[in-house]
Amino acid sequence: METTKVDCIERLAPTVEQATEEALNIMGVTKDKVRITVLDEGSKGVFLGIGSRPAKVRVEMKPSPVEAVKEFLREVTLAMGLTVNIEMIMKEKFLNVNLTGENMGILIGKRGQTLDALQYITNLAVGRHGELNMNVVIDTENYRRRRRDTLETLAKTIARKVRDRRESVKLEPMTRFERHVIHTVLQYDKQVKTSSDGSEPYRYVVISPK
Predict the structure, then answer these.
(1) Residue 55: helix, strand or coil by DSSP?
(2) What b/e readout covers 126-161, taking b as 16+ CB neighbours within 10 angstroms?
(3) What is the CA radius of gyration of the chain?
(4) Residue 136: which of 84, 99, 173, 183 has the closest Cα?
(5) Fold of 65-141
(6) Is the dihedral of CA 188, 189, 191, 194 positive or negative?
(7) What does residue 135 show for φ and ψ, rounded to 5 degrees?
């Protein structure tokens, strides 16, 4: 017999703890997977249970990190007055999000600053769901690809200067994704090495001679 998945349930019991435990058993999940709202803490009554009232809780499933990202981005873009289509593909530890619609230049901003800010706060939202190992990369109109090409050229140019001058070069602050591009481009270079320094959102890459 096929069972129906329960995403939300309200439960009555003598105590909040009992009501919560019963709801979790029915849903077949652990406490960390749900949101618990106490609707009524209940009352034991004044004498021999007279006037007692059961506790009541609502237990509902938390959205998955991917669903949370989609919900978060939809709310933020609507607040900006934009209606966007959201496409998401998970690749290794990166959740690649592509936004399409009208007036996407508003989302990109000057030198991608608005897009970077949106990406940064989205990753903070993901962190609240406990998915610290999942990095969200947001793109629109192939801006990231164009930016990747620019960063690859920059990495090779700076690496050449480091090899010639034998001096380290500190790059401008970059997002985690952008730093990843620099590290990846130069990871097999036998004469230079890369490292990240600083604190978010001002973390940057240093290219140094080996």
Answers:
(1) strand
(2) beebebeebbbbbbbeebbeebbeebeebbeebbee
(3) 25
(4) 99
(5) GMP Synthetase; Chain A, domain 3 (3.30.300)
(6) negative
(7) -105, 130
How far is the C-alpha of 127 from the C-alpha of 92, rounded, in Å?
17
Residues 6+ apart with CB under 8 A from 133: 93
Contacts of 201 (CB under 8 A, 6+ apart): 120, 173, 175
* 73: nearest Cα among 146, 126, 4, 8: 126
Kindly report, as residue ranges, where domains of CATH 3.30.300.20 are found in the chain: 65-141
pLDDT of residue 129: 62
Which stretches of the chain drop beneath a pLDDT of 70? 1-5, 45-49, 128-132
Query: Residue 110 has what DSSP assignment?
Result: G
Write the CB contacts of 67 (distance below 8 Å, at least 6 apart in sequence).
Answer: none
Looking at the chain, which residues constitute the CATH 3.30.1370.50 domain(s)?
145-209
Q: What single string gives the DSSP state of each residue in 178-194?
A: HHHHHHHHHTT-SSEEE
Which CATH entry fits the domain spanning 145-209: 3.90.79.10, 3.30.1370.50, 3.40.50.300, 3.50.50.60? 3.30.1370.50
pTM over 0.70: no
Which tokens in the block code for residue 2?
């096929």
